[in-house]
User: Fold Phosphate transport system permease protein PstA from Frankia torreyi.
Amino acid sequence: MSTATVSGPDIDSDPDRLRLRGQTLPRWAPLAVAAGAVVVSLLIYLLTPVDSEIQIVLMAALLFVIATTVVSTVVEGGRRARDRFATTLVYTAFLLAVIPLVAVLVSVISKGAGRLDAGFFTHSMNGIGARDVGGGIYHAIIGTVEQVLLASVLAVPFGLLVAIYLVEYGRGRISRVISFFVDVLTGLPSIIAGLFILAFWVLALDQGFSGFAGALALAVLMIPTVVRSAEEMLKLVPNELREAGYALGVPQWRTILRVVVPTALPGIVTGVMLAVARVAGETAPVLLTVFGTNLINSNPFSGEQSSLPLYIYSQAGQPQQFAVDRAWAAALVLIIIIMVLNLVARLFAGRNRLK
Assistant:
């Protein structure tokens, strides 16, 4: 018995008929689209009344996103075009966020690096007149380090204990009230914290201006950041670790101290450094509570003291160019100090990560 075979087109010889793999944009296509967007934006800048560099950057980013989506729709289809649109939007937003940071760093380094020398770190402003070129930030560095350390000593243990209570013990109305006030403190303007310490500590208790008064104001600003960051990190600790400790008969307080806190320690340290970075550059609360001085005062509990933000504020407001140069140099030093603190925190958190 013979079987008849029906002849037809050879599907294997024509893989495009299967559409198993659609067309994709070449790797150079996004770069070409970006170059075209930049060229069009420059032409608009040259041929139209638009004279703002920020508008040109935003216009180039918008043209890049639109052009990439259109080209991807034509070549790859709607499904991949939507995926490429979301990806392009994320990368564009990242670049737009990085550009101001890079611009600030370049501006501060270019304007402040030339004033940095050994004398700038080892001398204060004592005896420096309005028209004198010398002077340094030795007294301001001492004030900033002491005030931030005191604020950390006050805020970090208190904030960590509050976070532990909210996560491990907090139930009912008291926990909700504490969370509400922490949220209120999170959005508290820094000048309000300075006014509170000024009215209570400096005026009502007649303690006078001092570095410790500034540390109290900075601690008020640090507490909500420490509480929220530590709370979120403690919530990420698996409940199985707690249950394992309870199954072995370990008390709850010891389980928290030996298991929960060490597990969340890297994130807690990162949150603490974020709080330090926030308060290290605050000017308003320091201006109201520390008041500032040109002398070297290494005792934060007695007399007026200076700080780097207060030094930058006072020098930037003077008309002389060398005073403005000192302000830029002090700003660069403040950025370096914060970066070093964050690097140390990262190394510390990495070494204490549970294996």
